[in-house]
Amino acid sequence: MTRNVAVYRALQSMASFGLEVFALTCAERGSAIFRSLATAEDAEWFSQVLDTAWKAAAGEFDEDELAELVDEFQEHAESFGTDDAESREFFVLQSAMLAMNAIVVHLHPSAARAETSGQTLETLLGAFDFKLGGEEARIVRAGETPPPPGRLQRTEQEAQAAVVEAVTALTGPQEVTRTFLEEVRERCRPLREEIAVAAAAVGERAGWDANPL
C-alpha cells in the first residue's frame, strides 16, 4: 500500500496545534465509517466523543475531563473484543479510535500519534477500495513499484496534504480560532459523505445490517 510519506514527513516539524488539527480532520472524515456501520447507540456516543475533541481544540474542556473520557472510551472499546479485520466491529472501532486519538494528541502532542491517525484512515479506506474494486490481490515482488492507491485512499491523501498546507499557512497558534476550526471541519464534509456511501456499500456486500440494533 502506497503511503502518504511526504505528508507524514511534514508532521515531524509541525507545531503541536497543527498536529491536533491534522488528527481532528482525519477523525472527522473517518467518522463516516462509525456513523454508517455502528449501532445507533454507539454511533451517537462516538459522535459525542468527536464533538468533544473539536471543542477541546477550542479550549472548552480541561485536561482532567478529557483524561476521564479517554479512560471511559478504552473501557467501551474493550466491549467490541475483536481482532477480525473482516468484521464490522473492526471498522467501527478503528474509525472511532480516530476521534479518541485526536484527544490524545491534544493532551500529548506527538507527530507519531498524528501520523497514526493518517495511517489508520488510509488503511481503512484502502480496505474499502480493495473490497469495492473486486478484491483482486496483486503480489508485489522486491524491487517492483507497488500499485497506486485506490480512489478513496488517494482522495484521503490529498485531503491530508490540504490540511498540512492550511496549517502551514498560519503564522502561529493564535490563528487557530474557532472560525478556523469550523472551516477545516467543513472542508472534510465532501469526502466524509463519499466515505459514508462506500462504508454502506461495503457493509451491504459483506452482509452486515445497516446500523444494527
Task: Please tell me about this protein's structure.
With 213 residues, this protein is mainly α. Helices cover 70% and strands 0% of the residues. Helix 2 (16-37) packs antiparallel against helix 5, helix 2 packs parallel to helix 9 and helix 6 crosses helix 9. The radius of gyration is 17 Å and the shape is globular. The model has no long low-confidence stretch (mean pLDDT 89).
Q: Treating each run of at least 4 consecutive H or I residues as one helix, how many helices?
A: 9
Q: Please count the beta strands (DSSP E, at least 2 residues each).
A: 0
Amino- and carboxy-terminal Cα gap: 34 Å
Radius of gyration: 17 Å
Give helix and strand order, one letter per element, not per position. HHHHHHHHH
Report the sheet-strand fraction. under 5%
By secondary-structure content and strand pairing, the structural class works out as: mainly alpha
Can you summarize the main beta sheet? none
Low-confidence stretches: none
Overall pLDDT metric:
89
Shape: globular
Percentage of residues in helical conformation? over 70%
Which key terms come to mind for this protein?
9 helices; 213 residues; mainly alpha
Give a topology summary.
Blueprint (H helix, E strand, L loop, with lengths): L4 H7 L4 H22 L2 H18 L5 H16 L9 H20 L3 H22 L18 H18 L9 H9 L2 H18 L7
Helix pairs in contact: 2-3, 2-5, 2-6, 2-7, 2-9, 3-5, 4-5, 5-6, 6-7, 6-9
Summarize the entry for a quick read:
The chain is an all-alpha fold. It has helices at residues 5-11, 16-37, 40-57, 63-78, 88-107, 111-132, 151-168, 178-186, 189-206. Helix 2 packs parallel to helix 9.
